[in-house]
Protein: Phosphomethylpyrimidine kinase
Organism: Metallosphaera yellowstonensis MK1
Amino acid sequence: MKKKVSMAVGGFDTGGGAGIESDIKAMESVGVHGVGAITAITSQNTLGIREILPVSPKFLASQLSAILEDFDVRTVKTGMILDADQMKVVSDLLYHKPMVVDPVIYAKDGTKLIGDLDAFKSILLTKARVVTPNVPEAEALSGEKIRSVEDSRRAAKKIHETYSVPLVVVKGGHLQGEEVVDVVYDGSSYLVLKFPRIEQRHTHGTGSVFASLMAALMAKGLDEYRALERASSLIKDAIYSGLEIGKGVGPVDPMARLEIEAMKYRVFEEMREFADFVERRENFHRLIPEVQSNLAHGVTPNYVRGLQDIATFRGRIIKRWDGRVVVGLPPVFGYPTHTARLLLSIIQKGETADTLMNIRYDSTLVGIFRKIGYDVVEVDRTKEPPHGEGKTMGWLVEYVYSEYGRIPNVIYDRGAVGKEAMIRFWTSSIQEMMDSLDSLLKEWKP
């Protein structure tokens, strides 16, 4: 199998949060083979940097030469390059490669990582195809104070004009506001990208991963703007899935999108197995209410961001007139069904809910749930206030949580005017769901 190759040049992070480790992970996550040349070995963890050991310019040149002699390197991403001698080596050997420069001036803990900023500007920045500074870095490169999006526009233009960088991306995460606003300038026009701010403490390596994704996507043949658009989407997943490791600020997860896609495939296959289970079980039709049933099944709960990560059956689980049960395949992600909304609301309360189903209400079934060890509560649907379509499941979770301080596995109601009585229950795996349904069918003798 052949793959495109992209090179990362930067430091080695002993905590695995940034540096060429995260660069190569990011490149591999989009199907590009990542190679790396180390400029320094750092002694660091999630709490900060303790020590930096630079490699000699001669050894850096040896690494770069070894890579270039053997690999068809399509693009380069640079990170921490400490001094003018290292910068000259990189410039001399890689000037002919499209280079995405992440100007790593300061570490997350404030440690200064570029000893000679003027050399960086004159030697390396002038060779960049793309530069991706955050606000403090853009201030250092442009000399402009940045307090607003308009300031970011001025800084981007000044960096472009001063150093002839074809594409400048000033990332706006450090600015205040509910949205993160990135400003892109190419010498003729601005592009302003707006994203909802993700409340996340663990953001170490964000800039490193973003620049690496851009370089890798450019290596695959995407132009700078298409690579930027795709990298911006992928970095949101990486930030959202920030890793709670260590005692300090953890890293973003550069593999997040790949992991989510793999989980979705698993969900799809497990739901097909569940459909086979349902259609083969004798008397399963007895569990299905008049409004029919559906199953909601999601990716691992801490990766769930919204309905796009939860699947339900397109055609529900239907009881036929002759007692047969038919599952309306295929499973689809993102459908705003009652079961999907309820599962999402439960996950958002911090529960490890993976799978949820609605079945008919019967007092005997409630008793069996208690007998097999489930936490069971009743909800009075007559207390539900009037609200718009799609709000019932959110209200159900908020009501239960306010009343009991938890979200039990089994929530049932006896119905109300125009509302069928129902049992809704969630489990931490689809296998547990099938085992529980088996127990209900064995114990229930209507």
